[in-house]
């Protein structure tokens, strides 16, 4: 695990995987993390009050979430305390005012799904960015989508969004989301294999979400790198 610093841009590398990116003074990454945070724009500002990030990493998604929802209570779940330590030391994680819990995401969801004080029915958006593996062999753990996404649904407020960053498992995750949500949108990122899946209620479409991103002062500049499709 290491921090690479090139030209003022800092990257967190975990198991030879590009895990987080930070350029001081800038918010948008022109990368996958923009796509993970972009669905927050579908929610009206009053519904961006409580956000859960599963797989906090170095805080790339949390930084965008903070910019898009300045008043939100953001909770980040991260398995590895060394990731948190490096992010605090090199990626200005503490400046984001995120409530950080060092925990296994599945174990945390199991507790939160039955505890109203911790999570049940609480979050307006859950942004899931959990992977395991090494180098080019990163993938979702076998508990995503199920039971993790079912537990996450129990933690969503009515009308909330579930977002999942996927790779080769995108079709399996999309099928699970379509069973349980009225609408699912896929976001692609230029030059990356990731497909960010967004599940929500009626009215959510790729075209509608794209329009929200185009109008955003935070993410509008990222629009040429992103593709949106209703699935």
Report on this structure:
The longest helix is centred in the last third of the chain and has 11 residues. Helix 4 packs across helix 5. Helix 2 links the parallel strand 4 and strand 5. The protein has 7 helices and 11 strands. By secondary structure, it is of the alpha/beta class. It has an 8-stranded mixed β-sheet, sandwiched between helices. The chain has one domain: Rossmann fold. The N and C termini lie far apart (36 Å). The mean pLDDT is 96.
Give a nutshell description of this structure.
The protein has seven helices and eleven strands. It has helices spanning 32-37, 60-68, 81-90, 105-112, 148-155, 170-180, 206-214; strands at residues 2-6, 9-14, 17-22, 50-54, 73-78, 98-102, 123-128, 156-166, 183-189, 195-200, 226-230.
């Amino acid at each position: 695990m290491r921090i690479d610093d090139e030209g003022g841009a800092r990257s967190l590398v975990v198991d030879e995987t590009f895990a987080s990116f930070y350029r001081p003074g800038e918010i948008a990454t022109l990368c996958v993390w923009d796509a993970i945070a972009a669905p927050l724009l579908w929610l009206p500002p009053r519904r961006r009050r409580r956000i859960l990030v599963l797989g906090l990493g170095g805080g790339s998604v949390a930084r965008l979430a903070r910019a898009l929802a300045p008043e939100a209570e953001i909770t980040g779940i991260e398995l590895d305390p060394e990731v948190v330590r490096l992010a605090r030391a090199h990626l200005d994680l503490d400046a984001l005012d995120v409530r950080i819990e060092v925990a296994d995401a599945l174990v945390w969801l199991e507790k939160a799904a039955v505890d109203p004080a911790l999570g049940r029915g609480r979050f307006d958006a859950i942004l899931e960015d959990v992977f395991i593996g090494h180098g080019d062999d990163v993938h979702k753990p076998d508990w995503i989508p199920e039971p993790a996404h079912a537990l996450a649904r129990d933690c969503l407020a009515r009308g909330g969004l579930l977002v999942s960053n996927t790779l080769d498992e995108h079709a399996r995750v999309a099928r699970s989301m379509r069973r349980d949500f009225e609408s699912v949108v896929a976001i692609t990122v230029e030059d990356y294999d990731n497909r960010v899946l967004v599940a929500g209620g009626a009215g959510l479409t790729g075209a509608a979400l794209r329009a929200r991103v185009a109008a955003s002062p935070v993410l509008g500049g990222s629009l040429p790198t992103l593709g949106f499709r209703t699935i």
